């Protein structure tokens, strides 16, 4: 069934929001590289890649339902973060905001009786639990270590191990 106009518009806004998320995390990755925190830079880079897979999942859905993808400008992001704690706190706040957007999309899908869209959105409802938890846990750790440079380098090492997995695909194949 062709997607309704209201749902199409709402999903197009979400494509933009997910690409904005990728942009936000890419800016954080760049800043961490400047700060010589290569492991945390890698973590944010992988996060940016994941956000693009979220955007593409919405994009594919709109086209599959014979909708039109509109691709307005992506807003610029901050790249002058003070330290990783400031970045992860902002990431956590951002993910909470995204969870709100996904919940509103679900409300729209239910109001429009678009069950296919609601089913697709269930994946994002689950994903947001993890998105928030990741940013919140790392923020907590960074608050805990305070000014310890040694502990920061250990966290940098730990976060360098993150592997990009496209969870929007059934196989979830790991990629370099
Ligand atoms: Fe696509 Fe981080 O939510």
Q: How would you explain this protein's 3D organization?
A:
This protein starts with a helix and ends with a strand. It has a two-stranded antiparallel sheet. It has helices at about 5-35, 40-65, 85-110, 115-145, 150-160; strands spanning about 165, 175. A hairpin with an 8-residue loop joins strand 1 (about 165) and strand 2 (about 175). The chain has one domain: Ferritin (Up-down Bundle), CATH 1.20.1260. The radius of gyration is 17 Å and the shape is elongated. By secondary structure, it is mainly alpha-helical. The chain contains 5 helices and 2 strands, in the order αααααββ. The model has no long low-confidence stretch (mean pLDDT about 95). Bound molecules: MU-OXO-diiron (FEO). MU-OXO-diiron (FEO) binds next to helix 1, helix 2 and helix 3. The site of MU-OXO-diiron has 7 residues, from helix 1, helix 2 and helix 3.
C-alpha end-to-end distance = 37 Å
E-strand count: 2
CATH fold name, please? Ferritin
Count of helical segments? 5
> Which CATH C-level class is it?
Mainly Alpha
Number of domains: 1
Describe the structure in brief.
It contains five helices and two strands. By secondary structure, it is mostly helical.
What's the layout of helices and strands?
Elements: H1 5-34, H2 38-64, H3 84-111, H4 115-145, H5 149-159, E1 164-165, E2 174-175
Antiparallel strand pairs: 1-2
MU-OXO-diiron is lined by residues 18, 21, 51, 54, 95, 98, 131.
Salient structural properties:
176 residues; mainly alpha; Ferritin; two-stranded antiparallel ribbon; 2 strands; 2% strand; elongated; binds MU-OXO-diiron
């Amino acid at each position: 069934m062709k997607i309704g106009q209201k749902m199409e518009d709402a999903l197009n806004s979400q494509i933009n929001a997910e690409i904005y998320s990728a942009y936000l995390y890419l800016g954080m990755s760049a800043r961490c590289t400047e700060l010589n925190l290569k492991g945390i830079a890698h973590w944010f880079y992988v996060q940016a890649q994941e956000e693009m897979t979220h955007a593409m999942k919405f994009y594919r859905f709109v086209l599959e339902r014979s909708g039109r993808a509109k691709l307005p400008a992506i807003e610029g992001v901050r790249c002058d973060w003070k330290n990783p704690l400031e970045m992860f706190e902002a990431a956590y706040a951002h993910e909470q905001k995204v969870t709100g957007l996904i919940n509103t999309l679900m409300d729209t899908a239910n109001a429009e009786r678009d069950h296919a869209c609601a089913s697709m959105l269930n994946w994002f409802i689950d994903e947001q639990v993890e998105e928030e938890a990741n940013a919140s846990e790392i923020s907590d750790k960074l608050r805990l270590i305070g000014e310890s440079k040694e502990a920061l380098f250990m966290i940098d090492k730990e976060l360098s191990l993150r592997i990009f997995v496209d969870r929007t695909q059934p196989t979830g194949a790991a990629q370099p």
